[in-house]
Amino acid sequence: MRAGELSAGRLALLLNAPALAGLFLVLAYPICFAGYLSLHTVSIRELRSGEFPFAGLANFARLLADPVFWLALRHTFVFVAASVLLEVLIGLAIALVISDERVWLLWSFILNAQFGYLNRVLHKLGLISEYINWLGHPWLAMGAVVAAYVWRTTPFNVLLYHAALQGIPATLYEAAAVDGASPWQSLWQVTLPLLRPMVAVTLILRTTFGFMVFDEILAITQGGPGNDTWVAAWYTYRRAFQPPFDIGLGAASAWILAIIVGLIALAYVRLVYRRVEYA
Length: 279
Description:
The longest helix has 32 residues, at 67-98. This protein has helices at residues 8-38, 44-49, 58-64, 67-98, 107-110, 117-124, 138-166, 170-178, 183-194, 196-211, 215-221, 232-241, 247-271. It contains 13 helices and no strands. The radius of gyration is 24 Å and the shape is flat. By secondary structure, it is an all-alpha fold. The protein has a single domain, classed as Orthogonal Bundle (MetI-like fold), CATH 1.10.3720.
């Protein structure tokens, strides 16, 4: 490095400074403010007066004592496990196919029990004798939400995996073929190990967004039937932005979710991520 030149680390920090500033304004400040709200009593009355009495950990105590919160959290883990598994497997499968040189739908209407297209198609094919109330059964409703979510988000995974696959040198596959490796062995011994960094990235991103799922719940089930599709983000929304507008409790819920997602992300990095360098 010549005299007066910036080190690689300082140069990277300088080049990323605008993005870091944007992330601070968009993410860090709201997170810190939500933390502040979670430690205070905040409802319509306090919002009108502008004074937020300090509540300490009372909001967190009420949150952890609420059985609906634990129900929503359990549903969230089920949703995240199913959606992330499907997103990773389907996205990787499609990326592998399109990398081989040889080769928002209105879900509430599709799944409607009376005139939905899914029932009509299945009935015409003779696969069902009566229309199914997809959104009236707890597991079917959750499955419908997972399907809609995976349909919307899988293309993003496909793009990431496709880009990662294009970055794997062809010489590695040629060397594997010379060593007598079959296509299946090349997949397991060459492709998948080299995709571990991207798999870790997609796991972190899809798990984070899975914990934040809201649009599909609002559009398709609105938490029903009963509380059977309540997830963590829906719980936070209902507590904070619907009567009695307990914003402090909603902020506490959001912070609990942030902590859970952060711990899962760290686990992904430790268990899955590996730095890959090509000679």
